[in-house]
Amino acid sequence: MYFFLLNLSLLDLGFISTIVPKSMANSLWDTRAISYSGCAVQVFVFVFLFAGEYSLLTVMAYDHYVAICKPLHYETLMGSRACVKMAAAAWGTSFLYSVLHTANTFSIPLCQGNTVEQFFCEIPQILKLSCSDSYLREVGLLAVSACVGFGCFVFIVLSYVQIFTAVLRIPSEQGRHKAFSTCIPHLVVVSLFVSTDMFAYLKHPSLSFPALDMVVAVLYSVVPPTLNPLIYSMRNKELKDALRKV
């Protein structure tokens, strides 16, 4: 679990570092400028880390499922080599996914100006600048990505159905509490991540205007990676004791 948390922490750190420093610099210097190549790099890194985090959260759901529902097989199914392979698969597929999206997005001719109505380079906002039907390729790719993401979400939900079914069968209250304390932080992180993304990309077009789009973008791009360390730290006894004293 801590191996996956290390990977999640690295993804969260990169997530914040991709967007926030540039936005802060623009705010301090009273500018909204970003170079074309800088925008492409930001899109690539953002999509890479976004997909990596979702993939890793899916892997962590499987890790919790094996730990609680198949504890006797845990060392076999989730040994160190298996964990490294799963993490490498999450990073590798996310890298390829990001390359595909970035190359597809920036191969589209843009003729509707050069103003992205967002505080960072976001693919849907860039597609609004397209002047040909070629943007439909990226829309199609986004639709396929949504289907894959929905599949991961279903996998996570089914894993937790099995987990909670197994936990409720545990006779001791202490055992149930330990199992829930292991799963709840991950479930909260997944819920926060998925709910903000769904609200950002599935809201009705009539609700789309710059101010709201910016607030929603902050919700799904800044809030989850900021809160993740705090959510997982709540399992740390020393930190909880310190908070009680405060």
UniProtKB/TrEMBL annotation:
- The answer to whether keyword Transmembrane applies is yes
Source domain of life: Eukaryota
Q: Where are the transmembrane segments?
A: 40-62, 82-100, 142-167, 179-202, 214-234
**Which range is the signal sequence, renumbered to this chain?**
1-25
Question: Which SUPFAM superfamilies does this entry report, sorted A to Z?
Answer: Family A G protein-coupled receptor-like (SSF81321)
Mind listing the UniProt keywords for this protein, alphabetically? Cell membrane, G-protein coupled receptor, Membrane, Olfaction, Receptor, Sensory transduction, Signal, Transducer, Transmembrane, Transmembrane helix
KW Membrane (keyword) present: yes
Protein name per its UniProtKB record: Olfactory receptor 14J1-like
Q: Which organism is it from?
A: Apteryx mantelli
Gene name of this polypeptide: LOC136993160
